[in-house]
Amino acid sequence: MRATRHLSPHSFADGLSALQNASDFDVLQALLPSLCSALGQRYFSYRGHFALPDGRFATPRLGNLPRVWQQRYDAQRYDNVDPVLSLAARQLTPVEWTAGLYASPEARQLLDEQRAAGLRFGITYPVFTPSGASGTLSLSSSRRPAHCLRPSTPHQSRPHTLAARYNARPTHDADGPDTHVWASHAAVVLAAHVHEAVWRIVQRDAAQRCAPALTPRERECLRWVACGKTSWEIGRILTLSEHGVVFHLRSAMRKFEVSSRHRAAKMASDYGLLDDVAGPPHQEIKEITFATQDRQASCSVST
Fold first, then answer.
1. Across the strands, what pairs with 31?
2. pLDDT at residue 299, as a whole number
3. Is the dihedral of CA 204, 66, 137, 139 positive or negative?
4. pLDDT value of residue 286
5. 213-303: which CATH topology?
6. ∠ CA 54-57-63, rounded to 5°
7. Rg (CA), the chain
8. What is the rounded average pLDDT of the residues 165-172?
9. CATH classification of 9-208, choosing from 3.40.190.10, 2.60.40.10, 3.30.450.80, 3.40.50.720?
10. Pairing between strand 134-141 and 43-51?
């Protein structure tokens, strides 16, 4: 029998922070199993649907479902008849995989095959971004989960902050009904964090795909602009004339369609174009803020 991992609220909160800092989908995929296990669930499946500015859509998917079952689900196009996904698209509250939802013959077949694959108990959490981008995080297991989160600090008053709620101890026994409610709330929070992390990565990747192509010299010059150097100082560092530095910076500004070298440096940094450019040791790029709204980029991912 698979051992269930017990995770403290503090460790769970650390896991959520790691999701916020995830740099790509592989990192998210590696972080999610332990967080789901902390909620007593063996499997997870995330599906997102993000409209991009050019009218196309990004549809990222993450999960650790049994491969044979995932292939069967996709081949049979069960997402078109899955009543859980249909209901999750129309409400904000979690959808439990109860047998009553699977009313049609096709849905009933889905339920039978799903249970045979080991996904006997599950719940799906609808999530949305402020822009309206939708997604679902489904957690499932072969047996009804016994929630494993173990609150560790005494309950003194009703918590008002997210961190306080993680550390709030139920008034009943740790395996009692309050713990079930507490862990259910934790799952909702997990779904929101996963969706936001995916949204951030989708936006970044879309921006990078349509970022202008910069020459190595243009990237070097912009990197030093971001570090606060003047054209003369950059020329000394890169062994270029001041006129040469100005030439490269103006070329980069034209590509970004901006009139400020600092604006061009900020946009290049946002696109990730300066990440692998050699810069000063132990010196980070300075944060540059502007009153104008950042230009939104679009990227073709899927139709």
1. none
2. 30
3. negative
4. 37
5. Arc Repressor Mutant, subunit A (1.10.10)
6. 150
7. 24
8. 44
9. 3.30.450.80
10. antiparallel
